[in-house]
């Protein structure tokens, strides 16, 4: 078990007082970000990324990933207490979490949510620990065609998993690719889609897109819906925690099932949001108390929270091993790695052992830190939501503007952020998914260069994507996923006939 | 989500059509620029527009289908995209935000942020001037200390800062 040895070494890297301090700072910041409307995991990390440029990469990624864990925990607080999902993946938590809070069992619901999040994350980290070295060594044999097939698989999975809006998913994704192509083409040296604007020469930075689409878009959406924060009081004492912990083992099967759903959806980039819905649905169907779901069942909190956290965590596996992030936040972290000069992918596991295992060890520690922070500080975080919106909204916008500016020290980026914000607002309302756009924007150049190299190898013959069993299998799977919505309707019709 | 009393400012269908048309136009621009650069196979491999050409195509096709589907969609024609009151609220955020980002370049981010926060607190929150000034100046001051002093990340500054010698 070489992984255990590496992991113990990783704990040595992660367990310095400085890193531990960063972990707690990261988790606290993350929970605040998760609680505030307009700030979430992806854009929160994007805004704070420039602040970490001067830190050593291992410490920086530990802090940023802890912000991510914090945001995952934080979303549940607003869902349960205020019936406002702080993050999209905690929408399913409101179904049973808020009724529980109304019944006066907010403390139990919160404890269940946090504990399940922790368990989901823990299982996902264990999966990462043992699976990622295998995936990485496997991926070492990849050439350009295989690499492109992985990208193809990633993007086709998005289309296949999208609910009924496959066309909008494709359109949104392709806009991401097109935006990624803007600027200097490094292979031929020609300028693409710049139309003489010097500001466009360096292309679109995806951090700006993330801050605008998720941050500004979210604030506009919140404003439109009116702003009544009416919430239950959070009372969380040791007795409630202990009582809930005694109750939780009853739902071990739901936990396991939800973790499996979450890990799967995180690794193929389905993401935390569909994972939480799917897991809620599955739990509802298989539970003995299935009909009571929605009226305030602890199990109805356990299922979506476990899956969301498992998915959010396991989204880092393909990011580290293949350089293909499974979620927008993982994409932002990947952008951070590139800025620190670390190329994610199979070689990372050979050349940057310290970094990789330090990060994986910090995932264990960060989630423990997260659980401690959220269990002890809930009333504090809930108080943030009582700050009037007329103060918090402009401050969040200022934070977004500063974040957008610091990415490249350019005011033009702040204008762009606002444009992306309006686009995000409209897209969200028309149900164009945002995650594929962001992922395509991040991976666009890499996907294109893999495609070009593959095509060069075969002199323009696409059959190279079926040249051997490995690449052929991935391409076929990708195509099946791509046409899955069509296949599904076809099957349903055949059944009906 | 929308109040019944809130008269619609636009229907879902209208927006659906507008966005699909915009997407189609965007895709067409991508295609046109790719053809200008050359979207074929050259002696030395794919030309610069080879990949983006298909991207453009894959924007145009779904956009066209969404457009055509929305045309005949009665249900969407009846649904409100945004009510008038809701739109007003959104505009009360959006327009000041536009003014704010324009001001960043002219008077620096700190003064612009102070004014922006103050505007919201007065206009939406109807706070007394004292509270407004305290919060707006306080927040900007914290950001100043955070970025200029602690992280040493200079943000855009204007005439006031240079007059104070803080540049």
Could you characterize the architecture of this molecule?
- The complex is a heterodimer of chains A (497) and B (167).
- With 497 residues, chain A is mainly alpha-helical.
- Chain A is built from 22 helices and two strands.
- Chain A has a two-stranded antiparallel sheet with strand order 1-2.
- Helices cover 72% and strands 7% of the residues of chain B.
- Chain B folds into two domains: 8-78; 84-163, no CATH class.
- Chain B has seven helices and four strands, in the order βαββααβαααα.
- Chain B is flat, with a radius of gyration of 24 Å.
- The relative contact order of chain B is 0.11.
- The two termini of chain B are 47 Å apart.
- With 167 residues, chain B is mostly helical.
- The interface between A and B is large, with 59 and 65 residues.
The gist of it:
The complex is a heterodimer of chains A (497) and B (167). Chain A has 497 residues and is an all-alpha fold.
Write out key terms for the chains shown.
heterodimer, A: about 500 residues, mainly alpha, two-stranded antiparallel sheet, 22 helices, globular, B: about 170 residues, 2 domains, 7 helices, 4 strands, about 70% helix, flat
> How far apart lie the N and C ends of chain B?
47 Å
Please mark out the parts of chain A with pLDDT under 50 across 5 or more consecutive residues, or reply none.
none
Instruction: Based on Cα principal axes, name the global outline of chain A.
Output: globular
The first-to-last residue Cα distance of chain A is: 54 Å
SSE class of chain A? mainly alpha
Report the count of strand segments of chain A: 2
Secondary-structure map:
The complex is a heterodimer of chains A (497) and B (167).
Chain A: H1 2-14, H2 17-35, H3 41-48, H4 57-82, H5 91-102, H6 106-139, H7 144-161, H8 166-181, E1 183-184, E2 191-192, H9 206-224, H10 238-247, H11 252-267, H12 272-286, H13 298-314, H14 316-322, H15 328-339, H16 348-351, H17 353-384, H18 389-408, H19 411-429, H20 435-458, H21 469-482, H22 484-496
Antiparallel strand pairs in A: 1-2
Helix pairs in contact in A: 1-17, 2-4, 2-17, 3-4, 3-9, 3-15, 3-18, 4-5, 4-6, 4-13, 4-15, 4-17, 5-6, 5-13, 6-10, 6-11, 6-13, 6-14, 6-17, 7-8, 7-20, 7-21, 8-20, 9-18, 9-19, 11-12, 11-13, 12-13, 15-20, 18-19
Chain B: E1 8-11, H1 12-37, E2 41-42, E3 45-46, H2 50-71, H3 74-78, E4 80-83, H4 84-107, H5 109-125, H6 129-150, H7 159-163
